[in-house]
Specification:
The protein is of the alpha+beta class and about 850 residues long. It has five domains: about 100 residues, no CATH class; about 200 residues, no CATH class; about 110 residues, paz domain (Beta Complex), CATH 2.170.260.10; about 140 residues, Rossmann fold (3-Layer(aba) Sandwich), CATH 3.40.50.2300; about 140 residues, 2-Layer Sandwich (Nucleotidyltransferase, domain 5). About 25% of the residues lie in helices and about 25% in strands. The protein contains 20 helices and 36 strands. The strands form eight sheets. It has an eleven-stranded mixed β-sheet, sandwiched between helices. Strands 8-9-10-11-2-20 form a six-stranded antiparallel β-sheet. The protein has a five-stranded antiparallel β-sheet with strand order 4-5-3-7-6. The chain starts with 7 loop residues before the first helix and ends in a 42-residue tail after the last helix.
């Protein structure tokens, strides 16, 4: 009997029960093309046009792979993706005439696309990892879903470009290390050795997009740190300072921290199998033994030592018998292998946060080449053997132009700014302005504050307290902020930051001492540290959720140098946290020149690292609470389901913020613009049909119906642009700030554009991609582009236009703050981890406490709830 299987594509094309009653919203169409410009600018984009024969037919097949048990019945067992590729390769090797490898692409899951008709049905595949490994039998079932003319593939891009995308990825997939949409060389340059067991591997990322010029492949240079494929002992010698195998027990914890969870191959026998390091054995190799079973069951089990087993079975003598073995077992079964026989598998990412300072700096330098070098690297990629062009693309009748796309951009005018009492501030061609001769718009007096000096007992990093306070007061005065002497001077050491309880006791004591001097609430606590410290998270969690006083941290080195610019930025952050106004636009924002109140909302989700398999994601929403300046924000942060991109409490968080706006301004905003960060094109429908619906249900009623515009801001995309004429970019050769592109490389009909709102002084600038998916405020292209660009000048943290619109950037800061809170909460339930260093944060944990998901631990203190505590 033939079983019925519904594929993912069929699900997409078939209406769900909800779709039969509720019409799904689609992104809005582009209203027009922008025209406003100071001047046009000639650009090159890393988009490479895809040529195809519209009459070419592509066959789409559904694949189902099951492992068979001893009785020949399918096992209910999940097969990992790398294994699925091995099964596919074995099938193609067994039946080369029926499955020609250069005419077929596979996504590693359920889909095969072919340039020719393939046989359908079921095929048995026998797979073995090599010597002494059991063979496994799999049933590979293949069924035709549809055959499509290339013409029809391009009429529904989000559903049907999958096949084309797989064709483009096939050649680099065969030649390079594959990580998501990125592909890296299998070798590294000698100059890219990071000297800590890792190296910087160069490669590229690519994305197939449907643009105004047709389908185009966007290709960008990329660098990633990987573990070097070397013997484990060599890695330990490189990675752990002063490591010595003769003192192995001294370094045991560092060893397991460094290699736990990594994959290795073994050298004592012939096998392709990859093993995962689960732990180090407690005992030494010479003392270890295990129960050896006869695979045929003829002889009873016997106990054998690891040393004897390797000598008798493989003819090898273990050299290092006085150290631990690696346990490579799984499913609670042990598999002891001496470290000297283990080699790290290639293609394993090395987390950037685990690099030392020098290695991190080298990786950053390699990753950020200037525009000319990046453009040359992309050119080399397009002509490389392991690039996007290969035999498979030719088999599908697809060609890729190897020259970048020529296009015209427009440079928008910078807005006029207001600082202090001056009427107008000059913005230079880098989108920057000077605070040296200007003051802030509204400086909040700082009458009650405390100074905690965590460097009092450190010789090298000791704070020059009087010097710092004197210079800070003088800089505040220049910026029109009245700063009194601190009420409390508390001198202590960094040990006070070692856990949340100590921090809470310290801050409570400081607050009580301040109240004893003069009744009233402290406005801010300035904390000076000798070095960056993992206790920063305790300080922020305690001050912002339990004490209700904002803190401002700085390093003693910067405080002692007291540079004019540094102190200016410190004053700006203090002023913003206390409710002051640093900079404002001289004119009303474009499109909103009337009297109606307008609110801007930013939303983002921060996910736990790849090594954390259970921790909550952090949803953050910020919103403006003043108009027309629109430069003060309130924030909410909420823990939610692990790695859930949809903001589950979006409506309720926004309702709180709208009510806050009404309480402060005595009126609710009549117009709202939402900027959503962190979603790709495949998630636009979720944002549009689920989050927006939740938002409207939470805030709208018969008496309140604001008009809403929803814009997605995307930074993680591969599109880069380069100047055709270097002289157009000033000293850095980057695309100048204010450059907007809404032709050629954008969507054929939907409302999106790329905006360079910042000056890039290092590396190659990346534009932010703004995608308008819902618009009840009826923006023109010019109005929305200028609105976003102008808002980029209102950041409270700096004196320049920023690369990402402030509502989104602030939401990102708040989501990260929630991540810090989560680390503290987790440690409170697992006190053993609270004494560890910053490297033992939740990023390296696969567990998460139940408290981590409870909102009460993330609720900001009522006194700070509507302040910019996160700046």
């Amino acid at each position: 009997m033939q079983s019925l299987r519904i594929t993912e594509q069929q699900i997409r094309s078939s209406p769900s029960p909800s779709e039969t009653t509720v019409k799904q919203l689609k992104p809005v169409n582009r209203p027009d093309r922008g025209t406003i410009a100071v001047k046009p600018i000639k650009l090159l984009a890393n988009h490479f046009r895809v040529k195809y024969n519209p009459r070419t037919t592509i066959m789409h097949y559904d694949v189902d792979i099951k492992q068979l048990g001893p009785d020949g019945q399918p096992l209910k067992k999940l097969i990992p993706k790398p294994k699925l590729y091995l099964i596919r390769d074995q099938l193609f090797e067994d039946y080369p005439d029926m499955f020609p490898i250069d005419k077929i692409v596979y996504d590693g899951e359920r889909n095969i696309f072919s340039a020719i008709q393939l046989p359908t049905g079921k095929f048995k595949v026998v797979l073995s990892d090599g010597e002494n490994s059991k063979t496994r039998i799999y049933m590979f079932s293949i069924k035709l879903v549809r055959d499509c003319l290339m013409r029809s593939l391009l009429q529904a891009p989000r559903n049907m470009l999958q096949g084309l995308d797989l064709v483009m990825k096939d050649n680099p997939f065969r030649h390079r290390i594959s990580i998501g949409r990125s592909f890296y060389s299998t070798e590294y340059r000698a100059s890219d050795d990071l000297r800590c067991g890792a190296a910087a591997y160069r490669g590229f990322k690519q994305s197939l997009k449907l643009t105004s010029q047709g389908p185009a492949l966007s290709v960008d240079y990329s660098v990633m740190a990987f573990h070097k494929p070397q013997p484990v002992l060599e890695f330990l010698n490189e990675h752990i300072p002063n490591f010595s195998i003769d003192r192995f027990d001294t370094f045991k914890q560092q060893v397991i921290d460094a290699i736990g969870g990594l994959k290795v191959n073994v050298t004592h026998r012939v096998t392709k199998q990859k093993f995962t390091i689960s732990r180090l054995t407690d005992g030494k190799t010479r003392d270890l033994s295990f129960e050896l079973r006869d695979p045929e069951g003829k002889n009873p089990p016997r106990t054998v030592s690891v040393v004897d087993y390797f000598r008798d079975r493989y003819g090898v003598e273990i050299k290092h018998k006085d150290i631990s073995c690696l346990d490579l077992g799984k499913n609670n079964m042990s598999n002891f292998v001496p470290i000297e026989f283990c080699v790290l598998v290639e293609g394993q990412r090395f987390l950037k946060e685990n690099l030392d300072f020098e290695a991190g700096r080298l990786l950053k330098r390699i990753s950020q080449p200037p525009p000319e070098q990046r453009r040359d690297a992309i050119h080399e990629i397009m002509h490389a053997e392991g690039g996007p062009c290969g035999a498979v693309t030719q088999s599908f009748g697809i060609g890729i132009e190897k020259s970048m796309t020529h296009l015209m951009g427009r440079i928008l005018p910078a807005p006029d700014l207001k600082l202090g009492a001056s009427e107008r501030v000059l913005v230079n061609d880098k989108g920057q302005w000077d605070l040296a001769e200007n003051s802030l718009v509204e400086g909040r007096p700082v009458l009650r504050w405390a100074l905690i000096d965590f460097t009092a007992f450190e010789y090298r990093h000791r704070l020059k307290e009087r010097y710092f306070v004197s210079n800070l007061k003088q800089r505040c005065k220049e910026l029109r902020i009245h700063l009194e002497d601190p009420l409390i001077h508390r001198r202590t050491n960094m040990q006070e930051l070692s856990n949340a309880k100590k921090v809470e006791d310290l801050l409570k004591n400081v607050v009580e001492d301040a109240n004893k001097k003069t009744p009233g609430k402290l406005q801010v606590i300035v904390c000076v540290m000798g070095l960056k410290h993992y206790g920063y998270k305790y300080l922020k969690w305690v001050s912002e959720t339990k004490i209700g006083v904002v803190t401002q941290c700085c390093l003693s080195k910067n405080a002692n140098e007291a540079r004019h610019q540094y102190l200016g930025h410190l004053c700006m952050k203090l002023n913003a946290k206390l409710g002051g106004s640093n900079v404002e636009l001289m004119e009303r924002l474009p499109h909103f020149e009337g009297e109606d109140h307008v609110m801007f909302i930013g939303a983002d989700v921060n996910h736990p690292s790849a090594h954390n398999s259970t921790g909550p994601s952090m949803a953050a929403v910020v919103a403006t609470v003043n108009w027309p300046a629109a430069n003060r924000y309130a924030a909410r942060v909420f823990p939610q389901e692990h790695r859930k991109e949809k903001i589950l409490s979006f409506g309720s968080m926004c309702a709180e913020l709208v009510n806050t706006y009404a309480r402060l301004n005595y009126v609710k905003p009549k117009k709202i613009v939402i900027f959503r960060d962190g979603v790709g094109e495949s998630q636009l429908s979720m944002v549009l049909n689920e989050e927006l619906d939740d938002f409207k249900k939470a805030i709208c009623d018969a008496k309140y119906q604001p008009t809403v515009t929803l814009v997605v801001a995307q930074k993680r995309h591969p599109t880069r642009m380069f100047l055709q004429n270097r002289r157009d970019g000033g000293g850095s050769s980057n695309v100048p700030p204010g450059t907007v592109v809404d032709t050629v490389v954008v969507h054929p009909s939907e409302f999106d554009f790329y905006l360079y709102s910042h000056y890039g002084s290092i590396g190659t600038s990346k534009p932010t991609h703004y995608y308008v998916i819902h618009d009840e405020n009826r923006f023109t292209s010019d109005d929305l582009q200028r609105l976003i660009y102008n808002l980029c000048f209102t950041s409270a943290r700096c004196t320049k236009s920023v690369s990402l619109i402030p509502p989104v950037f602030y939401a990102d800061l708040v989501a990260y703050r929630g991540r810090l809170f989560q680390e503290v909460v987790r440690e409170m339930e697992s006190p053993v981890s609270s004494s560890s260093s910053s490297s033992s944060s939740s990023s390296s944990s696969s567990s998460s406490s139940a408290a981590s998901f409870q909102r009460m631990f993330y609720d900001v203190h009522p006194d700070l709830q509507n302040s910019m505590f996160f700046i």
